[in-house]
Design brief:
One of its GO terms (molecular function) is diguanylate cyclase activity. One of its GO terms (cellular component) is plasma membrane. It is a single chain. This protein is α+β, with helices and mostly antiparallel strands. Helix 4 packs parallel to helix 8, helix 8 packs across helix 9 and helix 9 crosses helix 10. The strands form three sheets. It has a six-stranded mixed sheet, sandwiched between helices. The chain has two domains: 127 residues, PAS domain (Beta-Lactamase), CATH 3.30.450; 164 residues, Alpha-Beta Plaits (2-Layer Sandwich). Strand 4 and strand 5 form a beta hairpin. Bound molecules: guanosine-5'-triphosphate. The site of guanosine-5'-triphosphate (GTP) has 18 residues, from strand 7, helix 8 and helix 9.
Length: 301
C-alpha cells in the first residue's frame, strides 16, 4: 500500500473508533464522510448523510452558525468551537429520524489537509455535563449567578404575605424572563446566553431596594419580591426593570448582543391568598407578556 493510502486507512480507522460523532465537511458544507457509533443523536446512516449539505439538515439559524464555523475554520486555518442546542422541534431531519429530546452539543471543527478544502467536525453530546452543572447547584443558591433560587424565595414570599395580611400592608411579586434565550444560545453560543443572565442578575441586584428579595427562578428568569408595593407601584417597578434592560448587552465577536425581557407582576389579593397562588398569577401574567410578543409587562391583582 502506498504511504498516502496507509495514512488514509489509519485516519478512517481512527474516526471509526471515536465515540463522538464525526463528520467531514467540504468548504460548501457538504458532508463527505460521517461516523457516529453509539450516538445519542439519530443521524441516520452514512448513506443518508453523505452528499447532504448542512442546509439540508439544519434550519437557517443553525445552518448559518455551522457554515460560519466552516468558513472561520478554513479562512483562519484554526480550530472553531461552539456549543449548540439541537432541538428536534426545530430540526425536521433529526425529528424524522426519531429524535425526541433536545440535546446540547459541543461542535469542534478543524481544518483538514487535502486537495479540496474540508473540515473535520466532531459533535460531542454535552447535555449531561450541562445537567450536572445545574443539579450540583447548592440548595438555595443558583450556581451561575450566585443568587438565591426559587427554593429560597418561596418561604420568604410566604412570610411576606403573612406580615402584609397581619399589618394590613401589601406586597407584589415580579417575574422577569429573558426573551428568546434559546435562539440567542443557538445563534451566538451558550456563553453569550450565560453573560446575559449574569449581567441581568447584577443589574437587577443593583436596581432592587434593600428590602426586596431577588432570586433566579426557572431557566432564564428572575423573581423580585416587592414588599409594601401595590399593583400600580409594581408596574412602575417593572417599567424601571424594562428600561434598565434596554441598556444592557453581552459582548460577542466584537459586537454587543442586546436582549429584552418579559415581565409579569402579581399583587396580594387579601386573606386566603398564598405564595403559590401569587406565584401562579405572576406566571400567568408573564405568559401573557410572552404571548403578546415579549418585551412587555402584564400585571394582575
Ligand atoms: N446560556 C444559558 N442558557 C440556559 C441556561 N439555563 C437554561 N438555558 C437555556 O435557555 C433556553 C430557554 O428556552 P425557553 O424556555 O424556550 O425560552 P426562550 O427561548 O427564552 O423563549 P421565550 O421564554 O418564550 O421568550 C433553553 O434553551 C435552555 O436550555 C443557562 O444557565 N445559560
Amino acid at each position: 500500500m502506498k504511504n498516502a493510502n496507509v495514512l488514509q486507512t489509519r485516519i478512517d480507522a481512527l474516526l471509526n473508533v471515536l465515540s463522538e460523532d464525526v463528520l467531514i465537511l467540504s468548504q460548501q458544507g457538504t458532508i463527505i464522510f460521517s461516523t457516529h457509533t453509539d450516538s445519542a443523536i439519530p443521524w441516520g446512516s452514512s448513506d443518508d448523510l453523505i452528499g447532504k449539505t448542512l442546509s439540508d439538515i439544519f434550519p437557517t439559524p443553525l445552518f448559518l452558525s455551522l457554515q460560519g464555523m466552516v468558513d472561520q475554520c478554513l479562512s483562519l486555518n484554526q480550530l472553531a468551537v461552539k456549543e449548540l442546542l439541537l432541538d428536534p422541534q426545530e430540526i425536521t431531519y433529526l425529528r424524522s429520524q426519531g429524535m425526541k429530546e433536545s440535546c446540547w452539543v459541543e461542535v469542534r471543527m478543524a481544518p483538514s489537509a487535502g486537495s479540496e478544502p474540508s473540515v473535520v467536525c466532531r459533535i460531542d453530546d454535552i447535555s449531561q455535563r450541562k445537567r450536572a452543572q445545574r443539579e450540583s447547584s447548592p440548595i438555595q443558591r443558583d450556581l451561575l449567578t450566585g443568587m438565591y433560587n426559587r427554593r429560597a424565595l418561596m418561604p420568604v414570599l410566604t412570610q411576606s404575605i403573612a406580615q402584609a395580611l397581619r399589618y394590613d400592608w401589601i406586597c407584589s411579586l415580579m417575574l422577569i424572563n429573558v426573551d428568546s434565550l434559546r435562539l440567542i444560545n443557538e445563534e451566538k453560543g451558550w456563553d453569550v446566553g450565560d453573560q446575559i443572565i449574569k449581567r441581568l442578575a447584577e443589574s437587577l441586584n443593583s436596581l432592587k431596594r434593600t428590602a426586596d428579595f431577588l432570586a433566579r427562578v426557572g431557566e432564564d428568569g428572575f423573581a423580585i419580591l416587592l414588599p409594601e408595593t401595590n399593583a400600580e407601584q409594581g408596574i412602575l417597578a417593572a417599567e424601571r426593570v424594562r428600561n434598565m434592560v434596554s441598556d444592557l448587552s453581552a459582548p460577542h465577536s466584537g459586537t454587543e448582543v442586546r436582549f429584552t425581557v418579559s415581565i409579569g407582576v402579581a399583587t396580594l389579593t387579601g386573606e386566603g391568598d398564598s405564595a403559590d397562588d401569587m406565584y401562579g398569577r405572576a406566571e400567568d401574567c408573564l405568559q401573557l407578556s410572552k404571548q403578546q410578543g415579549g418585551n412587555r409587562i402584564s400585571g394582575s391583582e
